[in-house]
Amino acid sequence: MSTAPHVSVVIPTRNRPDLVTRAVRSVLAQTVTDLEVIVVVDGPDDATREVLAAIGDDRLRVLPLPESGGAPNARNLGVREARAPWTALLDDDDEWLPTKLAVQLDLAAGARVALPIVACRLLNRTPRAEFVMPRRLPAVGEPLTEYLTVRRGLFHGDGFIQTSTILAPTELLRRVQFTVGLRRLQELDWTFRALSHADVDLVYAAEPLVVWHQDEDRPRITFDTVWEEQFEWLQRSRPLLTRKAYAALTMSVISSMAAPTRSGAAFRTLLREARRHGQPGIFDYLAFAQIWAIPPQLRRTLRDKILKRPGANRAAASATRPGAPVVASARRPVVPAQRVSGDSGRPSEIGA
After folding, report:
1. Out of the domains of life, which is the source (predicted)?
2. Distances (CA, A) of 202 to 176, 181, 248, 315, 350
3. I want to staple 74 with a disulfide (CB 3.0 to 4.6 A). Which of 12, 82, 125, 323 is the partner?
4. Cβ neighbours of residue 83 closer than 8 Å, sequence gap 6 or more
C-alpha cells in the first residue's frame, strides 16, 4: 500500500493458524476497504506464517517476533506499526461481521471528545448457547466503572467490553499502552487507564458486530493465572474506580479466580477488602456466596440457561430496531471523590 489507510487492524496470534485465518478473512471482508491488517505472530510459528502468506492480499502485513512476549506486548508492537489514524483490535479466535468498521467509524465521526473509544455489542457464542452482550448500554451520567462491573443479577452482569469490539485513535493506543505481563483483564486495565484522560470517552454501537467464540475446552494461557496477581492489579487500580465498582470486582471477578483454591484465608481476605475499600450491594454478597459455593462449570451452565431464556436479550434486540439509539455515552466530569472511567475484560468474569 503506497498511501496510509484509514484503519489499521492489529491481531496478535501464535500457533493457531486456522483461527487467525478466519479472523483475517473477516477483516478483509469489511465494507470499509481502506484498511491494513497487521498480524503480530508472537514467537516462532512457521505454520501461521505459511497460511497467512497464502491469503494473497496486499492489505495484510505480518510482523513475526523472535520470541513470545504475550498478547499485550504483541498489541503494543502492532499499534506501533500502524499507519492509520484509527486502530481496531481483534483477537485471533474471534471474527467481525461485515459492517463492523463502517458502523464504528460513523459513530466516531459524531463523537463529542477528541479521542473516542468506540465499542459495540457482540454475539457470545459458546458450545451451549449464543446470546448478545452487553445486555444493556450505559445510561447517561452512569459511572462507567459501575456500568461494567456492578451486577444486577446473580449469574451475570449487564455491562461489558471486549478486545475485539474496540476501535480507538491510534494516538490513544500509543499514549496508553497495554500492560505487558498482565495475563488477565487486559482490556479492563487498558480501558480504566484510557478513560482517566479528560479527552477520552467510551461510545457504544447498539448492534452486535463481533462474534466472540468461547470454546471453553480450548486451552487459554490467560486462564492459568494465580489470583493474587490479579488482586494486586486491582489494588493498584483502586484510584480509578468508584467504591461500588471496586467491591464488585473484588467479590465477583477476583473471587472467581480465588474460589477454586477453596482457601478460607482467600475468602476472608477478599471479603474484608471489599468491605473496607468498597461499597458492596446485595448482589455483590450473593455473587460472592455463589462463586464460593457453586463449581464454575455449573455456574456457566446456569448463566447460559438464564441468558438464553425467551426475552433475556429483549433489551439488546430492541436497541437494534429502526428508531432505536445506536450510540451510548456515559461521560461525566472527573472529580476526585468519584472518578468516572471504564472497564473491560475478555474472560467471562465481567459479563458472567
Report:
1. Bacteria
2. 15, 25, 20, 20, 17
3. 12
4. 1, 4, 5, 8, 36
C-alpha torsion 163→167→172→175, nearest 10: 30
The string of pLDDT tens digits covering residues 297-333 is: 676 666 656 555 554 454 444 444 433 434 555 554 3
Query: Tens digits of per-residue pLDDT, 207-247?
Result: 999 999 987 455 554 445 689 999 999 999 999 999 999 99
Three-state SS at 2: coil
Do residues 42 and 74 lie in contact, with contact meaning Cβ atoms separated by under 8 Å?
yes
Helices (H), the chain: 17-28, 46-53, 71-81, 100-109, 144-147, 170-175, 186-194, 227-237, 243-248, 255-258, 264-277, 282-293, 296-307, 314-319
pTM: 0.85
CA distance 231 to 57: 43
Place of cell 477528541: 114
Q: Cα 178–160–342 angle (5° rounding)?
A: 55
User: Which domains, ranges and CATH numbers included, belong to the chain?
Assistant: 1-93 (3.90.550.10), 96-225+295-352 (no CATH)
Residue 27: φ, ψ to 5°? -75, -45
Q: Would you say 32 and 102 are in contact if contact means Cβ atoms under 8 Å apart?
A: yes
Rounded Cα distance between 69 and 224, Å, is: 16
* The three three-digit cell numbers of residue 145, written as one number: 466503572
Which residues does 292 contact at the CB level (< 8 Å), separation at least 6? Answer: 255, 259, 267
- Spatial neighbors of 264 by CB under 8 A, at least 6 apart, are none
Choose among 290, 287, 192: nearest CA to 247.
Answer: 287
What residues pair up with 64 in beta bridges, in sequence order?
A: 41
Helices 186-194 & 227-237 angle (0-180, nearest 10) = 10
Q: Which residue, chain included where needed, has cell 510459528?
A: 45
CB distance 108 to 101 below 8 Å: no
